[in-house]
Amino acid sequence: MKEKLRSHWFPALSFLLTLAVSLFWVALRVYYGLISRFLGAETNRSFLVMNLPVLVCVGSWFGCALALVGLLVWNRRKWPAAAGCGIGIIAAIGAVKVIRIGARDYLRFIMVHFWKSAAVAACIIAFALLLLFPPKLKTWVKGTVIALLVVFAVVTGYRLRPCDFTYGAVVYAVEDDYQIVFSTSDFSIGWVEIDGVCYYDLYAGSMRSADRVHKVEVPQSVLDAAGGYTVCAKQMIYRGPFGGYTGDTICRSYDFRPVDASDGLCHVALSDVHEAVDAAIAAAETARNTDFLVLLGDMVSMVETEADAQMANEIAHGITKGEIPVIYARGNHEIKGEYAEELYKYVGSRNQEFYYTVTLGGGDVFAVVLDMGEEFADDYHEYYGTAHFDLYRTAQTRMLEELYASGSFENCRYRMALCHIPVVYVDQYGNFEDFCNEWTNLLNAMDMDIGLSGHEHTLWPLIPGHVQPHTTLIYSEGYKGRVGVVKGGYLTDFRYPNFLVGRRSLQQQGGTQKDGYSEYVCLETCVDFESGTQTSRYINSAAAVVSGWYPFREEAFTDIITDLR
Question: What is the spatial distance between Cα 388 and Cα 374, in angstroms, rounded to a whole number?
Answer without folding.
Answer: 10
